[in-house]
Model the fold of this input.
Amino acid sequence: MADGHTKCKVVSFRLSDEEYQNVDDVTRKHGFTSVSLFARSATLKCDTDEPVRAPLDIEINRLLRRIEVLTSAIEQITTQLGILFKAKWH
Done:
């Protein structure tokens, strides 16, 4: 562990289906991959004025996925443009 402390306590609580869906929506909106990560981050931030944010590695992974999607879209556009130019010049 980076902070030198062993994590050995579990916090558990129940939510209705509607409550869980609301929390899951907020979880995804903030870039977390699970409700558990979001709840842990929110709990650890409860005594600070800092907003709850996704851990940096989660944010980096989200950005990498977006880059992959954009790269794929650019490749498709490039292919389509190549086809158009070949058709125009041949």
